[in-house]
From TrEMBL, chain A:
<dbReference type="GO" id="GO:0005886">
    <property type="term" value="C:plasma membrane"/>
</dbReference>
<keyword id="KW-0813">Transport</keyword>
<comment type="similarity">
    <text>Belongs to the binding-protein-dependent transport system permease family. LivHM subfamily.</text>
</comment>
<keyword id="KW-0472">Membrane</keyword>
<keyword id="KW-0029">Amino-acid transport</keyword>
<dbReference type="GO" id="GO:0006865">
    <property type="term" value="P:amino acid transport"/>
</dbReference>
<keyword id="KW-1133">Transmembrane helix</keyword>
Automatic annotation (TrEMBL), chain B:
<keyword id="KW-0029">Amino-acid transport</keyword>
<dbReference type="Pfam" id="PF00005">
    <property type="entry name" value="ABC_tran"/>
</dbReference>
<keyword id="KW-0067">ATP-binding</keyword>
<dbReference type="InterPro" id="IPR052156">
    <property type="entry name" value="BCAA_Transport_ATP-bd_LivF"/>
</dbReference>
<protein>
    <submittedName>
        <fullName>ABC transporter ATP-binding protein</fullName>
    </submittedName>
</protein>
<dbReference type="GO" id="GO:0015807">
    <property type="term" value="P:L-amino acid transport"/>
</dbReference>
<dbReference type="InterPro" id="IPR003439">
    <property type="entry name" value="ABC_transporter-like_ATP-bd"/>
</dbReference>
Automatic annotation (TrEMBL), chain C:
<keyword id="KW-0812">Transmembrane</keyword>
<keyword id="KW-1133">Transmembrane helix</keyword>
<keyword id="KW-1003">Cell membrane</keyword>
<dbReference type="InterPro" id="IPR001851">
    <property type="entry name" value="ABC_transp_permease"/>
</dbReference>
<protein>
    <submittedName>
        <fullName>Branched-chain amino acid ABC transporter permease</fullName>
    </submittedName>
</protein>
<dbReference type="GO" id="GO:0015658">
    <property type="term" value="F:branched-chain amino acid transmembrane transporter activity"/>
</dbReference>
<dbReference type="InterPro" id="IPR043428">
    <property type="entry name" value="LivM-like"/>
</dbReference>
Length: 298, 242, 352
């Protein structure tokens, strides 16, 4: 059992990775990007394509894919989100949902329905494990994934609090109007935030491909995982995302113990329970849920 | 050449014309007070100068350069800083972080976090406190400090005494007096007429979006300003033409 | 507006809208007798069109009028079909089970609304998706459904194919007409004033005493019921029930497409959008993936460049209004566009 708990915690690292970009974008731009999961799958396909076509190992491929994802994030913010956000809070949901459909089906068009994996391209890493005291075997990949999540979250935290750019992004997220009045280019700050979010999505996509299989329509479940982990953890704090990811993964592990099809049910159920408890104790909507401060500018 | 001039500026909020054809200019080192009743368009005028509102017509010039299409964040870099009404601090961030944000535009100059803290010693112990937890006076000091950190040519102050106790207002103005003495160009909106006349070189009284009265603060009487304030000047032929 | 001295005219219908009302009656009558003249394939296609109109109108009721964008409406579509299977399996007449099933869906949506309506915007949108995903998994656990293998509404096979086809056609037409009429009545009544107030500004509506949550709940339950009807009818036309097909997010994608293209928040827009979708599907549905890419891309483009959709744009440009659900104020001097004015939208006293 303790073995499964450890596996669950490590899997939580993956969920934290995929959730942190979603909650980061939400906390800065107040947009929930419904194409989030599809973009992660896109990154996984890009790495798979580089590996299978040009024999570029996925870890090297990241050097190409991550800058590409950053560019996509920039373009996404400049050409889609910025414009649709002006039409109110509901429009970006529709825009990004439409984008998700486009990405999913383009991937299907390009790569077909087959499920793919990056595991064959990372050598023994995909199955190697360490033995920990108490005859517990932990996969090397899972540990790397978890460590990446911790480093990424910590790095983001440092970036946001210690650098000028990070402060600009936080100021923009709090009040874009006033940010402009103190000299922050809010459009640029948002575009950079979107780029950073997409880099995390690229990383998440890489680990999705290495630890499991994916197909063109795998984006939707990834979006749901990301959303659930972000809400369970509370998007206000980055470390909350890690907690959320771990809780989600543990609930899935427990669900799988109860019933062969219980893995996903357990995850959804714990999400709804957390949501229910928080809604009935706070009596708040969105702001209370994701623990966001209210924005002073309307 | 005037440091800052506003020419026939018109600003609308939807159907409402908040500023209706305002022109004035301010020389380097001058202090200009904007007075007028609530809704006279003072705040909108300041925000339009800072670039937060896009004018429907007219121009804003800084050192002769047209700013009309320059976004607010670039105006900070050109030397215009606004202390907005209601202070508008980033409440999730500390005093120091708020001050450092003022430096984003990167204008060279003498202002630093330490200098602001010297100017407002009451902020020193609160340096790492989130501004949401500060008192009104401390918040106002942070807001002024944040604007100064951009080393502005022109400082726009919108109702810095709003919601503060008289004692704290005195302290804030004592600090401002130092700035005025050092030659900083200032446009300030102030409800307290006596205080506005006392600190400024020149006064503009706005009424329903227009300039109702303009003149040197020493030369205009309180009575004249009061008449312009309430729109009574239109009947009296003796008022200073706008 | 208050400065106008000569008295403005407040009106609901226009000459155009009175003609439109007669036209609607004629169209429904013609559609009712149409199976006499149409081929079997055409009858099936028309049935599909009616179901699309229901889906579009219901999603529009929720998003366009209630301000609740959901990407999980497939849950009601799937449940509408699932409960029909269950009820028919329990021995209920298959046609009766279609409607009892939709009622069950509507009843179930009420407790769900207590919970989900406290979420806002994007949270509500994905929250509903999670509900749909979870419901899909739970339905798979039912032995009757046999997981993804699925099952069929076998008891419908006692009717011969011709009777069945026409009966389902009429049921779909009647359901569509009844649901549209209900929605129209709701929007024209005092609840309609509340709905429009919420659509325009939720906080302001709440501050003048509009029962925001109650009104939204009404729309949520109506949309659940209507989409449940659509799911049950779809099951009747295709007989087979595979959870994956019915609980597919594609259904919500279709709804979003229809409403975005037609015109979100306009009664006529959803119908127009369904027609457009129907034609696109008829012409391009065979192109497979590119058809879906096109739908997604069109939705993105409309949300960016024409967020009011086709009908919203027509309405704005020409002041045209066929089925007026609001009031319009005509000022004697200048023509003012016919948006529902808040002065008329007084506080809703109706229990929602």
């Amino acid at each position: 059992m303790s073995n499964q708990i450890i596996q669950g915690i490590l899997l939580g690292g993956y969920y934290a990775l995929i959730a942190c970009g979603l909650s980061f974008m939400f906390s800065v731009m107040r947009i929930i990007n419904l194409a989030h999961g599809s973009l992660a799958v896109f990154a996984a396909f890009a790495l798979w394509w580089l590996a299978s076509r040009f024999h570029i190992p996925p870890f090297v491929g990241l050097l190409i894919v991550l800058p590409l994802m950053a560019a996509i994030g920039w373009a996404l913010q400049r050409f889609l989100l910025e414009r649709s956000a002006r039409g109110g809070a509901l429009l970006p949901i529709l825009t990004t949902f439409g984008l998700a459909i486009v990405i999913d089906n383009m991937l299907f068009e390009q790569f077909g329905a087959d499920t793919r994996s990056l595991a064959p391209y990372i050598g023994s890493l995909s199955y190697d494990s360490w033995e920990w005291p108490g005859s517990i075997y932990v996969g090397k990949l899972a540990v790397i994934m978890f460590a990446t999540a911790v480093i990424l979250l910590g790095g983001l935290q440092l970036f946001l609090t210690r650098t000028r750019l990070g402060r600009s992004i936080r100021a923009t997220s709090e009040d874009p109007d006033t940010a402009g009045l103190v000299g922050v280019d809010a459009r640029r700050a948002n575009a950079i935030a979107a780029s950073i979010a997409m880099v995390t999505v690229g990383l998440a996509g890489a680990f999705l491909g290495m630890r499991a299989t994916f197909d063109p329509y795998a984006g939707a479940p990834q979006l749901l995982f990301a959303f659930e982990a972000a809400v369970i953890g509370g998007a206000g704090s980055l470390w909350g995302t890690l907690v959320g990811g771990i809780v989600l993964a543990l609930a899935q592990t427990l669900g799988a113990q109860v019933h062969p099809q219980g893995f996903l049910i357990g995850g959804h159920a714990v999400f709804l329970v957390v949501l229910f408890v928080r809604l009935s104790t706070s009596g708040l909507g969105l702001r209370g849920l994701l623990r966001l401060p209210s924005r002073s500018a309307s | 050449m005037s440091l800052l001039s506003v020419e026939d500026l018109v600003v609308r909020h939807g159907l409402l014309q908040a500023v209706r054809g305002v022109s004035f200019s301010i020389e380097r080192g001058e202090t200009l007070a904007l007075v007028g009743a609530n809704g006279a368009g003072k705040t909108t005028l300041l925000r339009a100068i800072a670039g937060a509102h896009q004018p429907a017509a007219g121009r804003v010039l800084l050192d002769g350069a047209d700013l009309t299409n320059v976004p607010s964040h670039r105006r900070v870099g050109m030397g215009i800083a606004l202390v907005p009404e209601g202070r508008k601090l980033f409440v999730q961030m500390t005093v120091e972080e708020n001050l450092l944000l003022g430096r984003t535009a990167g204008r060279p100059g003498e202002w630093s976090v330490d200098r602001v803290l010297d100017m407002f010693p009451n902020l020193k112990p609160r340096r790492h406190a989130k501004t949401g937890h500060l008192s009104g006076g401390e918040q106002q000091a942070t807001a002024i400090g944040r604007a100064l950190m951009s080393n502005p040519e022109v400082l726009l102050l919108d109702e810095v005494s709003l919601g503060l106790s008289p004692l704290i207002v005195d302290r804030v103005y004592a600090a401002l007096q130092g700035l005025i003495a050092s030659g900083t160009t200032i446009i300030l909106v102030e409800q307290d007429l006596n205080r506005a006349l006392a600190v400024s070189d020149r006064v503009i009284c706005m009424l329903e979006g227009r300039v109702a009265l303009e003149g040197p603060s020493k030369a205009v009487s309180r009575d004249q300003v009061t008449k312009a304030y309430f729109g009574l000047h239109r009947k009296s032929p003796g008022s200073v033409p706008a | 507006m208050s400065t106008v001295s000569s008295s403005p005219v407040i009106e609901r219908g226009t000459a155009t809208s009175r003609i439109a009302a007669i036209a609607v009656a004629v169209i429904i009558a013609l559609l009712a007798i149409a199976p006499q003249f149409l081929s079997a394939g055409a009858v099936d296609r028309m049935t599909a069109l009616f179901i699309y109109v229901i889906l579009a109108a219901m999603w529009n009721a929720l998003a366009g009028f209630g301000g609740l964008v959901s990407v999980g409406q497939q849950v009601f579509f799937g449940l509408g079909a699932y409960f029909a299977i269950r009820l028919a399996d329990a021995g209920l007449n298959p046609f009766a089970s279609l409607f009892v099933s939709a009622i069950v869906v509507g009843v179930l949506s009420w407790p769900l609304s207590l919970f989900m309506l406290r979420l806002r915007n994007g949270e509500f949108a994905i929250g509903m998706w999670v509900i749909a995903a979870l419901t899909h998994l739970l339905v798979n656990l039912d032995r009757l459904v046999q997981g993804e293998t699925g099952t069929s509404l076998i008891s419908l096979n006692v009717y011969d194919a011709g009777t069945r086809r026409v009966a389902i056609y009429w049921l779909a037409l009647a359901s569509m007409t009844a649901l549209l009429a209900t929605l129209f009545g709701l929007l024209r009544g005092s609840t309609g004033a509340a709905i429009r107030a919420i659509r325009d500004n939720e906080d302001a509506a709440a501050s003048v005493g509009v029962r925001v949550t109650g009104t939204k709940r009404l729309l949520f339950v109506l949309a659940a019921f209507g989409i449940g009807v659509a799911g049950a009818l779809w099951l009747a036309t295709s007989i087979t029930f595979q959870p994956k097909t019915y609980f597919n997010v594609q259904w919500t994608a279709y709804m979003i497409f229809m409403v975005l293209v037609g015109g979100i928040g306009t009664f006529e827009g959803a119908i127009l959008g369904a027609l457009v979708f129907f034609l696109i599907e008829t012409w391009f549905g065979g192109t497979g993936v590119w058809y879906l890419v096109g739908l997604g891309a069109t939705a993105v483009l409309f949300s960016l460049f024409l967020p009011r959709g086709l009908w919203g744009t027509i309405e704005e440009r020409f002041g045209l209004r066929l089925l007026p659900v609001g009031y319009r104020v005509r000022l004697p001097a200048t023509a003012v566009d016919g948006d529902a004015t808040p002065q008329q939208s007084t506080i809703s006293r109706e229990k929602a």
